[in-house]
Specification:
This protein is 43% helix and 15% strand. The protein is globular. It has a single domain (9-237), classed as NAD(P)-binding Rossmann-like Domain (Rossmann fold, 3-Layer(aba) Sandwich). The chain contains eight helices and seven strands. The longest helix has 29 residues, at 101-129. Helix 4 packs parallel to helix 5 (150-170). The chain has a seven-stranded parallel beta sheet with strand order 3-2-1-4-5-6-7, sandwiched between helices. By secondary structure, it is α/β, with parallel strands linked by helices.
C-alpha cells in the first residue's frame, strides 16, 4: 500500500527511542521528511543519522519548549510539519496520597501542556495547506486506569477528551486528530522494568507483548491521506488487552 507520504513533513517527539523511534522510522520509510526530538542531544544525532532523518534536541516538559520546537522544525523542513506526533515519557508513579503538587505540575507540563503548545503551534500551517495529521501517543491507562499510576491515569484520560474536542474544530480544514494507546510493547522501558511476554503474556489475548513496528504501522496509516475520514478516535494497539468497549 502506497501511503503517499513522499511530499509530507513530520515532527516526532520522543523520536530517539521506543515507540517514537519506530514511528519516525516508518514515516521516513514511507518517504516523509522527518524531524525527531529528544532530550539527549548526542543520542538524537546518532539516531537521526541511523534513520536518515533530522535530529533536534529539546525537552518538551519545559514550559514553552514544545511551541519553540515546532518553530525550529518548521525552519529545518521549510514549512510547518504536516504530521505531528506527540510522545512523552510517563510521569512519576505513585498513588494519590504519594504525589506532591510539584509532581502533579511536572506531569501536567510534560503530558498535557506539551500537547497543547505543539498543536497550537502546528495548526496554522496545517490550516493553510488544507492537510494535517496530529497523533497523540498516550497509553491504555487512558481507558483503564493502572494501579500506582494516578498522574498518568488522570492526565491521559483527559487528553482523550481534548483530542476529540480539537478534532471537531479542525476536521473541516482537512486536519485529523487521533490518540494512539499502546499496551505492553517491547521497548527499552519495558525491558528495564522486566516486562516480557513470558511475564505478562497470559494477561493479553494475543499471548505476547507487541513490537514497536506494529504500533508504528498504525501511526503511519493514520498519518496518510487514506485515513482522512478517521478523526477524534482513541485507538488501542494492545493485543486485545483492554477489556472495555
Amino acid at each position: 500500500m502506497d501511503l503517499k507520504l513522499n511530499d509530507k513533513t513530520a515532527l516526532v517527539f520522543g523520536g530517539s527511542r521506543g515507540l517514537g523511534r519506530a514511528v519516525a522510522a516508518e514515516l521516513a520509510a514511507e518517504g516523509a521528511r522527518v524531524v525527531i526530538v529528544a532530550r539527549d542531544a548526542a543520542r538524537v544525532e546518532t539516531v537521526a543519522a541511523e534513520l536518515g532523518v533530522i535530529g533536534l534536541a529539546g525537552d518538551v516538559s519545559k514550559p514553552g519548549a514544545s511551541r519553540a520546537l515546532v518553530g525550529k522544525a518548521a525552519a529545518l523542513l521549510g514549512s510547518g510539519p504536516d504530521i505531528l506526533v506527540t510522545n512523552t515519557g510517563g510521569p512519576a508513579p505513585g498513588n494519590f496520597e504519594d504525589i506532591s503538587d510539584a509532581a502533579w505540575q511536572a506531569g501536567f507540563d510534560n503530558l498535557w501542556m506539551s500537547f497543547v503548545e505543539s498543536v497550537g503551534a502546528a495548526l496554522p500551517a496545517m490550516r493553510a495547506k488544507g492537510f494535517g495529521r496530529i497523533l497523540a501517543v498516550t497509553s491504555v491507562a487512558a481507558k483503564e486506569p493502572m494501579s500506582g499510576l494516578v498522574v498518568s491515569n488522570g492526565l491521559r484520560a483527559g487528553l482523550l477528551g481534548l483530542v476529540n474536542s480539537i478534532s471537531r474544530d479542525v476536521a473541516a480544514a482537512g486536519i485529523t486528530v487521533n490518540a494512539l494507546m499502546p499496551g505492553y510493547t517491547n521497548t527499552d522501558r519495558m525491558k528495564d522494568l522486566g516486562v516480557t511476554s513470558a511475564k505478562v503474556g497470559s494477561k493479553i489475548p494475543a499471548g505476547r507483548i507487541g513490537e514497536p513496528e506494529e504500533f508504528a504501522a498504525l501511526a503511519a496509516f493514520l498519518a496518510s491521506e487514506r485515513a482522512g475520514y478517521i478523526t477524534g478516535q482513541a485507538i488501542a494497539v494492545d493485543g486485545g488487552y483492554l477489556q472495555s468497549i
